[in-house]
């Protein structure tokens, strides 16, 4: 990072906890919906699906009931991280338009209740995964939760514009967790290839959001890349990441993890992702960034769905007849 960027970061970060008062005492009764909101269900859906993909693509045998338990543990673990993240970020959430109505800054759930809720879910998810499935997948799940909470939320988010690049690793662990749950192996290259796909997808996905929510991050003194490096530099990095992502998403085909059916699908999906990034780079308004953010969610879902469908069709022997 340049000296200019470092200086900008120092000015921006400061003491974010002094930005605004946060309601610490919730009403007597909080709704079930409020506690569900703490879990970040929108984020959880993608996390669970990539974890499910890792489970489905891995070799090995696991009873369907235990497969369901493994997916449930990934979901609960993701929700635990989300709840603890909302507890820690309650001060900056209170000044961002996108997050001001979250349960803790809005006063519908107390900060203490949110923290305890998250910690209990983390303990429950890891314990259940270890007891019901295997302790290897439980250990990776615990590491993913700790990485999201400690490395990303507490350490990186308020200190560096590369927060989402490094911190994004937390969201890339679910395929590895699913793979380890099914196979008992955490070192298979296929599992870490799926990790790499999610890891490289995260920066352009999140920076697309940061581009059109730039004012929110400025108000909250969070040094997201558009705030520190500027819009143009951010757009260029988004394009670079989508270009790197193309060969990585094709790698399952190259190494024999999938067939040409997945390869063609990944090529088309990644080409469209690059097209979105190019439009963002050449545009001066927020519409392409909003469109890219929406597409990025569909993109990741479609990539992992294509991997699952490809394996299913290949197992049927249909492709050998074509």
Structure characteristics:
322 residues; mainly alpha; Tetracycline Repressor, domain 2; Four Helix Bundle (Hemerythrin (Met), subunit A); 2 domains; 16 helices; 0% strand; flat; disordered N terminus
Number of domains: 2
Q: Could you name the ranges where pLDDT drops below 50 across 5 or more consecutive residues? A: 1-26
CATH class category of the largest domain: Mainly Alpha
Q: Biggest sheet, open or closed, and with what strands and sense?
A: none
Shape verdict: flat
**CA radius of gyration:** 20 Å
CATH topology of the largest domain: Tetracycline Repressor, domain 2
- Structural class, please? mainly alpha
Portion in strands: under 5%
Q: Which whole number gives the mean pLDDT?
A: 90
Distance from first to last alpha carbon? 51 Å
N-to-C series of helices and strands? HHHHHHHHHHHHHHHH
